[in-house]
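Why do we care about 3D structure at all? Because function follows from shape, and shape follows, mostly, from sequence. That is the central idea of this module. The next example makes it concrete: a single protein chain, its amino acid sequence, and then its structure expressed as tokens.
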Amino acid sequence: MMDYLLLAFSVTDWFWDSWYELRHYATHLNKTQWAIMAGASCVFGFVCLKGNALRI
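And the structure:
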């Protein structure tokens, strides 16, 4: 049974399905959603710059 499930899974199909879904979402965002994405990206960048000194 497990061998059958492994054969049915395709990494390539999963990747392209994910890519098309991401592309669909990105092309249908409004200005507010783009602003939220941009702000979150900037915050994430500053958190990464903080590095090991970040204490949560």
